[in-house]
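Predict the 3D structure for this chain.
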Amino acid sequence: VRRRLEVRGTVNGVTVIDDFAHHPTAIATTIAGLRARMQASAPATGRLLAVLEPRSNTMRTGTMKDLLPGSLQDADLVFCYAGGVDWDVAEALEPLGGKLHVGQDFDAFVAEIVKNAEAGDHILVMSNGGFGGIHGKLLEALK
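Done. Predicted structure below.
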């Protein structure tokens, strides 16, 4: 099955994973699934960096924004791309505290993710679209 925890590559010990998760229930389930997979590996290492593009119509308009903090809480760091949404992403995701990073400039957003990634980490990219080719850009920037 494509786009369900699909490993797109590993560079310098950082694994980039793609998933179609694009609403709060799917996001929480995907994070839980990856977390379980990470804990089952021997030895369990690294952090889970969740990267979200709120791209569906209901996500862009903010219909489900109140459910997002809870769906992302089990990630170690959260990066949410705020370009193209009709609501204040930073305000809605404020309950995530210091682990939240919000970006509107795509290139700066990619750079921020890479700056925070460490060997052993898993970058989980969640979107229902191509997300500007972010997977390849992350893998290239991690080199």
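Helices lie at 24-40, 57-60, 68-72, 89-92, 106-116, 134-141.
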